[in-house]
C-alpha cells in the first residue's frame, strides 16, 4: 500500500447529502449552536434587527464562546415546524456543515449512524472528499 493511499479517508470517493428539511438536526436534545461575532451580525442583519437586539434575544455566552439559545426541550430557536429554518440563508457554519462534522465521518460506522437519524444523509448531492474535508475544517468544537 502506498503512503498516499494510507492517508486517504475512508470516504475517499465522497458521500451524499441533501437536506430534506426534516429538522432532525435542528430539534431534540439540548446542545450548542456555536456562533462567531460575524455570524451573529449576519443573523441580525438577516432578521432586520440591530446587533444588540438580536444578541439580547437569541444569544447566550457559554464560557468564552457564544451560542444561540434554544427552545425548551432543545429545539433550535429558529426552527419552526412546517416552515423549517427561518434563518436558513444566514445560518451559522455549524449548521451549514452538517452532516460533515468530524465525529460523523470518523468511521464508516459513524456515518452509518448519521444515515439512520438524518434522512438526507446518503442521498442527493454527492460531495467530494475534498469538500467533506473542507467542511470538517470549518467546524468549531
Chain-wise SSE layout:
Blueprint: H1 3-7, E1 15-17, E2 34-35, H2 37-47, H3 51-58, E3 59-62, E4 65-68, E5 79-80, E6 84-85, H4 93-96, H5 102-105, H6 108-117, E7 121-127, H7 129-138
Antiparallel strand pairs: 1-7, 2-4, 3-4, 5-6
Describe the structure.
With 141 residues, this protein is of the alpha+beta class. The chain contains seven helices and seven strands; from the N terminus they run αββααββββαααβα. It has helices at residues 3-7, 37-47, 51-58, 93-96, 102-105, 108-117, 129-138; strands spanning 15-17, 34-35, 59-62, 65-68, 79-80, 84-85, 121-127. A three-stranded antiparallel sheet has the order 2-4-3. Strand 5 and strand 6 form a beta hairpin. The protein starts with a helix and ends with a helix.
Compute the CA-based radius of gyration: 17 Å
Q: Main β-sheet, in a few words?
A: 3 strands, antiparallel
Please give the number of β-strands. 7
Class by alpha and beta content: alpha+beta
Strand content: 15-25%
Give the N-terminus to C-terminus distance in angstroms. Answer: 33 Å
For the biggest β-sheet, the strand order reads: 2-4-3
The helix content, as a percent range, equals: 25-40%
Mean pLDDT: 92
Order of helices and strands: HEEHHEEEEHHHEH
Q: What ranges have pLDDT less than 50 throughout 5 or more consecutive residues?
A: none
Question: Tally the helices: what do you get?
Answer: 7
Principal-axis shape equals globular
